[in-house]
Specification:
Layout: H1 2-24, E1 32-33, H2 38-55, H3 57-70, H4 79-104, H5 110-115, E2 117-121, H6 129-169, H7 176-181, E3 183-187, H8 193-203, E4 227-231, H9 243-252, E5 257-260, H10 268-278, E6 282-283, E7 286-293, E8 296-303, H11 310-338, H12 344-349, H13 358-367, H14 369-372, H15 375-383, H16 387-399, H17 414-423, E9 427-430, H18 440-447, E10 453-457, H19 463-476, E11 479-482, H20 506-513
Parallel strand pairs: 4-5, 5-6, 9-10, 10-11
Antiparallel strand pairs: 1-3, 2-3, 7-8, 8-9
Helix pairs in contact: 1-19, 2-4, 3-4, 4-6, 13-16, 15-16, 18-19
């Protein structure tokens, strides 16, 4: 699990680097200097208070220790030692910590991150990390320590009072340090939709939203694997291309082996086995099935299956019935929640799979001007950076787990679907979907159910998760697979052959492609 904690640090670094890159490449043009508006003053003050309280944490701890000394719980002779220890920690937090963090985030202190502000130069351009460290040390940390030591609380209040006057007097709310270093606070412009999708799910991980991670430097995002064992056709509810279109694209990419693993549907395999020799591509019959195990929703991939088995028709029928029932229940809950009538029949008729997703309802809500004016919708528009974020937050809060319109679905047991795949002559592989959110020990326990391997390489999971999964398959001598989860334009960020699989791992994946030879 330590690998995943390290990955959080890596992803946060990637997040701030990506934001900085977007800012440099045109984002600065959209940045806005602070003005004398009430909202700007509130944001600036709130950011300052957050920074101040974080920097003063050692002082708060020392106050508690002082009270413990007065109560006799700590010997009085420790007073001097604790005081100097507090002073040393204050140096770390206020002079080193604040400045280094601001440089790390390319111009955002702790409070600035929360209030979406950024320190830049007079041309709205980013300033160097060293410059930011000096600015924070001279403008914040050193006065806090020096004035606080010699003049105590009244001295600090006087210093911050002078800065408050300076902020109010300057047109863009500059402090004394800003005037000295010629820096200015700005409102950071909204992130692009793609970047926000990549980062928001990570920051709000309990929501368990599927995300597109940034591959590590060792795995090129542009590297096309000759094997892609996770493709979606239009037999899936969110797939776009028909079977032959997938083979045409795979042929153009000079791919060797592919598998179409549609969502709870194995019908694409009948056409795929006919196109495979025409395009000189090895084809492995496949399917991806929704299952559940001890409260986790997981997906299992079946390869080399006999798709003509009755079990796959049954899985598809049950899936369609389940999703339709969930759609009806979701719609009813939403009508009860907000009093808005939804024409279920009309929406069902426009859906090829007779489903109404949370995104469908959200789209309908935000397309209706009258509904947009309702308070429970309007608050998302007023508090979000853009409409894309407003819709995503609305969908999460209203339809996500714990939301008023959340509907849980019952999926078949993982062990039953593993057995069904084996009975159909197939190999059962644990899909990478949702693996970022499942502890390694639970994945280990799943392997004991007869799972034959794991999809270790995928753009859906983080680098540290890939490492953990590889460790597990090595322990169990299991198969390793890779897949892009290519959907077509419906999920444009996933591209065929882009499986985040390094070239040196291709031989591991080829083992499965030769499993029945």
């Amino acid at each position: 699990m330590s690998d995943r904690n390290n990955d959080k640090i890596d992803l946060s670094r990637t997040y701030f680097l990506a934001k900085s890159k977007a800012y440099k490449h045109g984002g600065y043009k959209q940045a806005e200097f602070l003005t004398r508006k009430h909202a700007d003053f509130v944001s600036h003050l709130f950011a300052f208070l957050i920074d101040l309280n974080i920097c003063l944490l050692p002082v708060y701890i020392w106050v508690i220790e002082f009270l413990l000394i007065l109560c006799g719980l700590i010997p009085p002779n420790f007073f001097d030692l604790l005081f100097y220890l507090m002073y040393a920690l204050l140096f770390v937090t206020s002079i080193l910590g604040l400045g280094i963090f601001t440089a790390y985030t390319h111009g955002q202190s702790f409070g600035y991150v929360y209030t979406n502000l950024k320190l830049v130069d007079k041309n709205k351009r980013e300033v160097s990390g060293l410059f930011l460290i000096l600015r924070q040390a001279i403008g914040f940390g050193i006065p806090l320590m020096v004035i606080g030591y010699f003049f105590q609380v009244l001295g600090m209040l006087g210093w911050w009072g002078i800065n408050a006057i300076c902020v109010c007097a300057t047109p863009h709310q500059q402090t004394l340090a800003d005037l000295l270093f010629k820096t200015m606070p700005v409102h950071e412009p909204p992130m692009s939709e793609e970047l926000e999708e990549e980062t928001e799910a990570f920051i709000e991980e309990p929501v368990k939203v599927v995300k597109q991670p940034t591959p590590s430097p060792s795995i090129s995002a542009d590297l096309v694997s000759p094997i892609d064992l996770h493709l979606r056709s239009n037999y899936s509810d969110d797939g776009y291309y028909d079977v032959e279109d997938l083979f045409k694209q795979a042929y153009q990419l000079h791919m060797e082996v592919i598998s179409i693993t549609d969502h709870n549907c194995a019908r694409a395999n009948a056409a795929a086995v006919r196109f495979a020799p025409m395009y000189n591509i090895q084809y492995i019959p496949g399917v991806e099935i929704d299952t559940q195990w001890h409260g986790h929703r997981v997906r299992i991939l079946g390869y080399y299956i006999d798709w003509t088995k009755e079990i796959f028709d049954e899985i598809e029928r049950n899936s369609l019935m389940r999703e339709k029932q969930v759609s009806i229940e979701r719609t009813k809950k939403f009508e009860d929640f907000c009093g808005i009538h939804i024409d279920v029949e009309s929406l069902m008729q426009t859906s090829r799979f007779q489903t109404i997703t949370a995104q469908d309802i959200t789209k309908m809500v935000f397309h209706n001007q009258r509904v947009r004016e309702l308070s429970f919708v309007k608050k998302y528009l007023e508090t979000s950076k853009n409409e894309t974020q407003a819709r995503r937050r609305f969908t999460r809060d209203v339809f996500g787990k714990g939301g008023p319109c959340y509907v849980s679905a019952n999926y078949p047991a993982l062990e039953d679907m593993v057995k069904a795949i084996h009975d159909a002559g197939g190999i059962a592989i644990l899909s990478s979907w949702n693996m970022d959110h499942i502890p390694d020990e639970d994945i280990e326990a799943m392997m004991e159910l007869g799972i034959d391997g794991i999809e270790c390489f995928s753009p859906r999971i983080r680098q540290a998760t890939m490492t953990s999964l590889l460790r597990i398959v090595k322990k169990h001598s299991a198969f390793v697979t890779c897949g892009s989860d290519f959907h077509g334009p419906t999920r444009a960020k996933y591209k065929m052959g882009h499986c985040c699989c390094p070239e040196k791992a291709w031989p591991l994946v080829r083992i499965l492609s030769e499993a029945l030879k």
